[in-house]
């Protein structure tokens, strides 16, 4: 949001360049900062954090964009001059020129450890390696690439083939996703206003793996369904599309501002649901006492599975966050279970890559819940877990997700 605001008044090409440079700097920041620290004679002071960021940005131009050497140095020095910090311009010039001289040696040094090679904090490398022991390097490599723009087709109103043809007539090349029957992936990202059918609710922007949530819960006409952590409403809309609007859907979220996005999405799609601002952990404040036939529980998580879309997760998330998130996830799972009728089903979903938020949460909860059992998942992709299935980040160019379908004894 901040980046969009800052680039709103720029010409389109300049805005695109600023966004690309900002994303690359954040995506590779762990590696770029290590280069900076390795070349400094003494550490920068905390008040010079903006200089550190400028140096990382200049290195991103050199190592990630191939900007001409003199241009990368000149542009970064000009930015340093603008902050009016004594010595900043000289430091930027000296360090970036040294990086140009030692480019090959610096590049080699960054290959020595997985954390630097993939610009990922060491704690997260360890967690991904433990969760994906056979493909952890591929997952980390995928985390450094930009994500594709994938669309969800409302197949209740138009076929995927017809939508693909319409996109291509508009000059937008798109390919059907091999594992997700509602997904089309664009060859190049575009503004949603340029996508035919988007404003009319025929299409939504949603990663292919995320689209499995609506498909795996498999809403049936007439069912009473709860989308328990609904905002911003992508999965809410898909549940309605998958049932042609024939379900009694309650969309719940604790955040009133984000619930506004659910409302906007449903208005664009042309569907209706009961929108409730409330906390799943306190159902007495909003629940009418009637149990639900099915519940979609997309719990708050570390979001490490969408790290290529939000690379700042690498910088903002900490290892110490995970136990607290897992405790919250178990609490929400227990609370949601109380609202489910006997014979009903609950789909537990995260966009986390970490077993501590996925099968370990569900497995420990199942062990303590006699009337719960895992149900099979009709999902052609992903990896089997002790409970549920995980989609590795980058597999078939999808985000990282975890799904567990749970049934309540009748």
Structural overview:
- The structure is a single chain.
- This protein has 3 domains: 2-112, NusB-like (N-utilizing Substance Protein B Homolog, Chain A), CATH 1.10.940.10; 150-205, Sun protein, domain 3 (Alpha-Beta Plaits), CATH 3.30.70.1170; 212-408, 3-Layer(aba) Sandwich (Rossmann fold), CATH 3.40.50.150.
- It is of the alpha/beta class.
- It contains 17 helices and 13 strands.
- The protein starts with a helix and ends with a strand.
- Strand 11 and strand 12 form a beta hairpin.
- The protein has helices at residues 2-7, 12-27, 29-39, 49-65, 69-82, 88-101, 103-109, 114-117, 122-131, 136-143, 160-169, 212-217, 234-242, 256-269, 313-316, 321-338, 359-367; strands spanning 150-153, 174-176, 183-186, 203-205, 224-227, 248-253, 274-277, 292-298, 340-350, 372-375, 383-384, 389-391, 401-408.
- Strands 5, 6, 7, 8, 9, 10, 11, 12 and 13 form a 9-stranded mixed sheet that branches. A 4-stranded antiparallel sheet has the order 2-3-1-4, covered by helices on one side.
- The radius of gyration is 23 Å and the shape is globular.
Compressed to H and E, one letter per element, the order equals: HHHHHHHHHHEHEEEHEHEHEEHHEHEEEE
CATH architecture label name of the largest domain: 3-Layer(aba) Sandwich
Strand content: 15-25%
Uncertain spans, ≥5 residues at pLDDT below 50?
none
Radius of gyration: 23 Å
**CATH homologous superfamily identity of the largest domain:** Vaccinia Virus protein VP39
Tell me about the largest β-sheet.
9 strands, mixed
Function: Specifically methylates the cytosine at position 967 (m5C967) of 16S rRNA.
Catalytic activity: cytidine(967) in 16S rRNA + S-adenosyl-L-methionine = 5-methylcytidine(967) in 16S rRNA + S-adenosyl-L-homocysteine + H(+)
Keywords: Cytoplasm, Methyltransferase, RNA-binding, rRNA processing, S-adenosyl-L-methionine, Transferase
Pfam family, one: NusB
